[in-house]
Write a structure and sequence with these properties.
The chain has 2 domains: about 5-45 and about 105-300, TIM Barrel (Alpha-Beta Barrel); about 45-100, 2-Layer Sandwich (Alpha-Beta Plaits), CATH 3.30.70.20. About 35% of the residues lie in helices and about 25% in strands. It has helices spanning about 60-65, 90-95, 110-115, 120-125, 140-150, 165-175, 190-195, 200-215, 230-245, 260-265, 280-290; strands at about 5-15, 20-25, 45-50, 70-75, 75-80, 100, 105, 130, 155-160, 180-185, 215-225, 250-255, 295-300. The strands form 3 sheets. The protein has a 9-stranded mixed beta sheet. A two-stranded antiparallel ribbon has the order 3-6. It has a two-stranded antiparallel sheet with strand order 4-5. Helix 5 (about 140-150) packs parallel to helix 6, helix 6 (about 165-175) runs parallel beside helix 8 (about 200-215) and helix 9 packs parallel to helix 11 (about 280-290). The protein is globular, with a radius of gyration of 20 Å. The mean pLDDT is about 95. The structure holds iron/sulfur cluster (SF4) (2 copies). One iron/sulfur cluster binds near residues 56, 98 and 99.
Length: about 300
Amino acid sequence: MITGKIFNIQRYSIDDGPGIRTTVFLKGCPLRCKWCSNPESQNAWPEIVHRDSFCHRCGTCITACPEKAIVLGDKGIEIDRHLCTNCGRCAEVCPYNALEMVGQEMLVDDVLSEVRRDAEYYRVSGGGVTASGGEPLSQADFVAELFARCGEEGIHTCLDTSGYASPGAFKKVLAYTNIVFFDIKHTDPERHEEMTKHQNGVILDNLQIVVKSGVDVIIRIPVLSGLNSTVEEMADTAKLIRDSGLNKVHLLPYHKYGVGKYEMLDREYPLEDLVPPAPEELEAIVRMMNKYSLDCEVRI
Ligand code: SF4
Ligand code: SF4
C-alpha cells in the first residue's frame, strides 16, 4: 500500500488548474525558493508549527516535551529546533491549538475518498484533482497511483511541478496526467541557483520530456522584481518557451502571503524587502510575451 506525506488537501480550488479542483499538497521539495509561500512544504517530514496568536503561555507544552525543547522566553514560547524531534506530543496537549503537526502519512485510498467528495463539481466545471506541494514528483509513486486511480474514475488530473525531479519520476506520473503546470523561474543557471539554491539544467531537460509526452502544458513564471523580471530576462524566458513549442503562460506576481508561516516555523523570511510587481511591470511583460506569440495572462 503506497502512502504519501500530505500537508493539506484543499477543496474548491480555482487557481490550480481548469475548473473547480481539489488540490493535494505533498511534503518535500529539493528547491529552496526564496519567495516560497509554503515553507512548511519544503522538508519531507512532519513538522511542529507554533501560532503565537493562539498561545496563552500556559506552559503545558513545556512540561510535555520529552526533549526539553520548549522554553518560555521574553517573547513567548520558543522551540529549539535542534532538540525537537517533531514527535508531536506538545501539539497533542496544547489546550488552545497553538501547536500543530504539519504533514501526515495518507494512503492513496484515503486521499481518493477526499477527492471523490467533489466529483459532481468537477463534472460541472471541468475540474478535477491537482497534485502540488512541495514538489509532488518527490513522491512520484504516490502521485502516479493517485492519478491512475483518478483516471479510472474519470477525474481530470493536473501536475503542478517545479520541474526539479528525476526524468524517471516525470515519466511515471506523466502517463496518468492530463495537464502540467510547469515553473520556469529563470533561464540563467547561476541566477536560478541564487533564487532557488539549485541550477536549472535538470528543469530544462525535464521540460523537453514533458513537451515530447504530448500532455498539455501551461508554463508558470513567478514575477519577482529585481530577481527575474527585467525585459532581457523575460525575453530569454519567452524565447525558451516559444522554442520549446509551447504557448500558454501564466505570470504569478510575487506576494507575501506566506510570511506568517516562516514565523510559525521559526525561520527567517529571506525577501523581507521585496515588494510585489507594479501593474505596469506586469502589463509590459504580458505585451512582451505576446510579441513572442505566447498566450500570456496574469494570475493573482
Ligand atoms: S500548551 Fe499551547 S497555549 Fe500553552 S504555552 Fe504551549 S503552545 Fe502556548
Ligand atoms: S514536537 Fe515533540 S520534541 Fe518537538 S517541541 Fe513538541 S514535544 Fe518537544
